[in-house]
Amino acid sequence: MLATVHIRGRRILCTPVICLFLFYLFILSSLARAEEVSSITLRDDDLASMKMISADWHYPTVWVGEDPCRWQGVICEIFTEGIFFTTTTKAVVSISLRGVCSAISEEDEENCVIGNNLGNLRNLRHVYLNGNGFHGEIPSSLSALKNLQSLYLNANKLSGTIPASLGNLQMLEKLYLNSNHLSGTIPGKLGDAQNLHQLELQQNNLGGTIPVELSKLRLLVQLDLNDNQLEGPIPAALGNLTALHRLHLGRNRLTGAIPPPLLGPGLPSLTVVDLSDNRLTGPVPFGICKMKNLAVFNADGNDLTGDAPRCQPVHGPHSDAENRRACREHLRGFCVTLPQVRTEL
């Protein structure tokens, strides 16, 4: 009689005795591998960088011990390098911390900065440093993190400008810099980070115009520039962001007409549009009548001509399906007043 054993994803047919023996060998090899993994040390440059970061952040009360891979909020992975002669080491791939600056006295609080040493962790993929009270500027050294996928620096006290070199991060998917004191303009270079899905820059002091280069971010799902001091027209090229779900441009100083490509069937996934409290003029483009997935639309506080529709999230901010139905009903009343519109609302 044959039995079946599954080892490392493979299904093996064998006699009960042979299956038992194979399973025993698998257990022994797994124990040996676990012992081998536990003995792998952190890469020397990562070890040095983590110790300098700990000193920069005055964080020894939580980061204790000689192995940073065991520190709170730090995740390491094993890497094997080389072809003929391989070496196996560990490297830091994720850092997630809150309240770093809260342990520092008020007179030293402004010295609590991110610092340049974080940019030396070349295998870092995820940085979650939101809500730490960091002061100072965003280090340009972060642009050396070629594997970085998530950068959360929101809800700090960061000042200065956004480093244009962040646009060199081709793996970056999520960039959260909102709720800081950032100034200057939005670098057009960010349009080169073409893997970006979420760009959150709201609640800062950013000025200048919205760079047309952002229209190159074809994978962008969410763009939030609310609560800044942005001026000039809304680039019509933002209508090329066909993957966009949520667009927030409210409470700025934007002028001119709402570009027709921004409100129409060319953005089939667009669910939320906030253009409120700007200086926009002209009518609402009638292409809005073709937007089947629109759930929230707010253009209040502008100088628009004619009746402007307003779709509120009457069913709550997380009930898109219900809000879509309510918005379609609201748009029906708006769109039947436009003789040039033929729609299947």
TrEMBL record:
<keyword id="KW-0732">Signal</keyword>
<feature type="signal peptide">
    <location>
        <begin position="1"/>
        <end position="34"/>
    </location>
</feature>
<keyword id="KW-0433">Leucine-rich repeat</keyword>
<dbReference type="InterPro" id="IPR032675">
    <property type="entry name" value="LRR_dom_sf"/>
</dbReference>
<dbReference type="InterPro" id="IPR003591">
    <property type="entry name" value="Leu-rich_rpt_typical-subtyp"/>
</dbReference>
<dbReference type="Pfam" id="PF00560">
    <property type="entry name" value="LRR_1"/>
</dbReference>
<dbReference type="InterPro" id="IPR051848">
    <property type="entry name" value="PGIP"/>
</dbReference>
<dbReference type="InterPro" id="IPR001611">
    <property type="entry name" value="Leu-rich_rpt"/>
</dbReference>
<dbReference type="Pfam" id="PF13855">
    <property type="entry name" value="LRR_8"/>
</dbReference>
<keyword id="KW-0677">Repeat</keyword>
<protein>
    <recommendedName>
        <fullName>Leucine-rich repeat-containing N-terminal plant-type domain-containing protein</fullName>
    </recommendedName>
</protein>
